[in-house]
Amino acid sequence: MNNNLINNSETDKVLLFINKILLVVVVLIVTLPLLYVLLGSFLQPDVLLTKGLSFDPKHWTVDGYVRIFNDGSIVRGFINSILYSTGFTLVSVGFTILAGYSLSIDNLVGKKIIMLYFLFTMFFNGGMVPVYLLVKDLGLLNSPWAIILPGAITVWNIILARTFFKGLPNELKEAARIDGASDAKIFISIILPLAKPIIFVLALYSFIGQWNAYFDAMIYLEDKSLYPLQLVLRDILIQNEIEPGMIGDQLARAELQRIAEMIKYSAIVIASLPLMIMYPFFQKYFEKGVMVGSLK
Known about the structure:
CATH architecture of the largest domain: Orthogonal Bundle
Keywords: Cell membrane, Membrane, Transmembrane, Transmembrane helix, Transport
Order of helices and strands: HHHHHHHHHHHHHHHH
Protein name: Putative aldouronate transport system permease protein
Family: Belongs to the binding-protein-dependent transport system permease family.
Structural class: mainly alpha
Number of strands: 0
Distance between the termini: 36 Å
Radius of gyration: 25 Å
Membrane topology: Multi-pass membrane protein
GO cellular component, one term: plasma membrane
CATH class of the largest domain: Mainly Alpha
CATH topology of the largest domain: MetI-like fold
Shape: globular
CATH superfamily of the largest domain: MetI-like
Oligomer: single chain
Helix content: over 70%
C-alpha cells in the first residue's frame, strides 16, 4: 500500500514532466535577458550591434565601465541612490515596526479606530497634486527629504508587521513584566530580537522599492546633482541623453549612438549590483518573515 502511495500514476508523471518543462522555460525567460545584458556590457559596440553576442575574447572590452566611472553624473547618481534608499529604509522600517507592534497590543486604546483610518488610506488618497503641494509647503522640494519621507510608511507593511507581532507568545512579555521589565525594555530586549525575520523582509522591500524608483525624484528634484541613479539611467535609456563628458564632444552622432549602447548595458549591470549583493544575506530571513507575517 505504501508503494502505491509513493509511486506516481501515469497522469502524475505527465503533470510533473510538464511542470519541469514550464519551470525551465520560466528560468530561461528570466535568465537569458540578464545574461544578454551582462555579456553585452563587455562587448565592443560594433560587434554587439552587427553580430550580437560574441564569446571571442578579442571582441570584449571594459570601455563601457571605464566611461561610466569617469562620468560624474552616474557615479553621483549611484551615491545618491545609496543614500536615498538607506535613509528611506531606516525611516520606513523604524516607524513600521513601532506602529505594527503598537497595534498588536490587545489593550491599546482606540486600536480599531486607528486601523480603520489606516485601511481607509489604502483605498483612498489625495492624489499627486495635493501630495506635491504638501511637500512644497513643508519646504522639502529639491531636497533628499522629498525622496525619503513621502511614501516611507505603507499600510500594507504595517499590517504585515502587526500580524507578525500578534503571532509572538504573550507569555514572554508576561514573564518579563513579572521580572520587573518595562514596556521599552520588553520591546528592545525581547521583541526586536525575535522580529529579525520581519525586519529584514521590510528592509528588503523598502530598499528595493526605493532603489528602483525614479518618479518622485522626477517630480520633486530640480537640481541634477541630486538625481538618483534610476533617473540618470532614465535619461540614458529612454531619452537617450548622455553627458557630453562621458563620450566626448568631438564624436559624431552615429558614434555617440554606437557607444551609448555599450554604456546602457554597463549602467544596467552597475545599477543591479547592490540588489544582487543584498539578497543572499537577506534570503535566510525572507521566506520565514513573509510566511509568518502573512498568516494568522
